[in-house]
Amino acid sequence: xxxxxxxxxxxxxxxxxxxxxxxxxxxxxxxxxxxxxxxxxxxxxxxxxxxxxxxxxxxxxxxxxxxxxxxxxxxxxxxxxxxxxxxxxxxxxxxxxxxxxxxxxxxxxxxxxxxxxxxxxxxxxxxxxxxxxxxxxxxxxxxxxxxxxxxxxxxxxxxxxxxxxxxxxxxxxxxxxxxxxxxxxxxxxxxxxxxxxxxxxxxxxxxxxxxxxxxxxxxxxxxxxxxxxxxxxxxxxxxxxxxxxxxxxxxxxxxxxxxxxxxxxxxxxxxxxxxxxxxxxxx
Length: 283
Fold this sequence. Notes:
- The protein has four helices and 18 strands.
- By secondary structure, the protein is mostly beta strands.
- Strand 2 and strand 3 (about 25) form a beta hairpin.
- The strands form four sheets. Strands 3-2-1-4-5-7-9-11-13-16-18 form an eleven-stranded mixed β-sheet, with no helix packed on it. A three-stranded parallel β-sheet has the order 6-8-10, with no helix packed on it. Strands 12-14 form a two-stranded parallel ribbon.
- The protein has helices spanning about 30-35, 110-115, 175, 255-260, and strands spanning about 10, 15-20, 25, 45, 70-75, 80-85, 95-100, 105-110, 130-135, 140-145, 160, 170, 185-190, 195, 205-210, 215-220, 235, 240-245.
- The longest helix has 6 residues, at about 255-260.
């Protein structure tokens, strides 16, 4: 079965009814929906689908979702992850991702299987530009492994993460080093301890450059201690707006008072071995 003209798919409350191309249609079983081909689907919205633990099925029609640009999933109480590794190649045209109020979600992008089998996608660069993750209390990873070039997110422009108390770090190192289009970064009310996770395979003193970031907000991050665990450099040449609220464990700029009484070190390490978030020379 194929719905070649369907551009919008809306699932709400029950998997037995879907909104396709401007009208409601009946689906007797969820499995039947998985057999339908959506070769031209652009927008997929799912709300309050509490009975779903996964969105995608391994037996999806090969033409389905390849043109999907907008995915919005909300109020899915039993969802565990959003993108299993087997599905990443299918969503290379996705541009806008919104996930909100999904109590059980632990991962957004599952990269584990790709790395284990050293599988490389034909097109490693995704088109993802906007990611908004809100009220995901059990989220542990946005990316559960460092992709190390297997898949790239370098088109990302906007990232807003809020209400993710289980999240301890945001970026794997290789992703943070390739955010050349990122313009806005907001992290609000999360359990984040570091923005970029440690990569044991990364050479000492890595450099993180954000050439287009103009807006950075860190709000209510009581556990945030560092940008990256270890000596590193970060550059934010176009940063115009910096907002930091209730982040009591991190030093934002190098301490002038400390440097006035002690020899200044180029790496600006504090007594606990952590660097401040930003350097005046690098903003």
